[in-house]
Amino acid sequence: MSFKIYTRKGDDGKTGLIGGDRVAKHHIRVESYGTVDELNSQIGLVRSFISGSAEEDHLANIQNNLFTIGSYLASSPSSKFELPKFDESSIPAMEEEIDRLTALLPELKNFILPGATQQGSHCHVARCVCRRAERLIVHLSDIEEIQPFIIQYLNRLSDYLFTLSRFLDQKFGGKEIIWRP
Predict the structure, then answer these.
(1) Which of 37, 59, 82, 167 suits 99 as a labelling partner, its CA being 20 to 30 A distant?
(2) 141 class by beta-carbon count within 10 Å (0-12 exposed, 13-18 middle, 19+ buried)
(3) Per residue in 96-151, pLDDT tens?
(4) According to CATH, what is the number of the domain 24-75+88-103+110-178?
(5) For the whole prediction, is pTM greater than 0.90?
(6) Residues 111-123 pLDDT 10s
(7) CA distance 152 to 88
(8) Would you list the DSSP string of 32-100?
(9) What residues contact 60, with CB distance under 8 A and at least 6 apart?
């Protein structure tokens, strides 16, 4: 028996959560995990530009963490399903990576605009998607209980993606574009 990608169960505008509950496809929970999925895809695009680097390895770990976070967000609050464990030590590890990259960069004295390189620009898009995911999940946390590490991780991830975008611009020969109000 082969697996079919379509189920027709969502044709009524609802989707199933882990645990069996069904909610509207525009539910804030679905918007939240859908945006985390979009972020994961955008990070995959960044990875495709930097294959073979230490930064690619960091992004691969981040993608796995985002998939785990997505499973938490896609679970109904009443679900008894056992979810994969999230390694909260990945938050301070990301801070260490931010510090490592920052030490390799010139001091940031101005706001910068995306566009110095394709690699850095795609990373900036990922940062923006990350911030949107964070906003949606904070909104969700006002309505339903969510694990605090999710917001912490996304907050730190947006900082990492900003720092990585600067690093990639430098690595690929771009010159930072200073905002001139």
Answers:
(1) 37
(2) middle
(3) 999 999 999 999 999 999 999 999 999 999 999 999 999 999 999 999 999 999 99
(4) 1.20.1200.10
(5) yes
(6) 999 999 999 999 9
(7) 10
(8) HHHHHHHHHHHHHHHHHHSTTSHHHHHHHHHHHHHHHHHHHHTB-TT--PPPPPP-TTHHHHHHHHHHH
(9) 47
User: Which residues lie below 8 Å from residue 43, measured CB to CB, with a gap of 6+?
Assistant: 59, 62, 63, 66, 126
**For residue range 24-43, what is the model confidence (pLDDT) as tens digits?**
999 999 999 999 999 999 99
- Domain limits, the chain: 24-75+88-103+110-178
Which amino acid, one-letter code, is at 53?
Answer: S
Largest Cα–Cα separation, the chain: 61
In the structure encoding, which two tokens stand for residue 138, read together? 């904070």
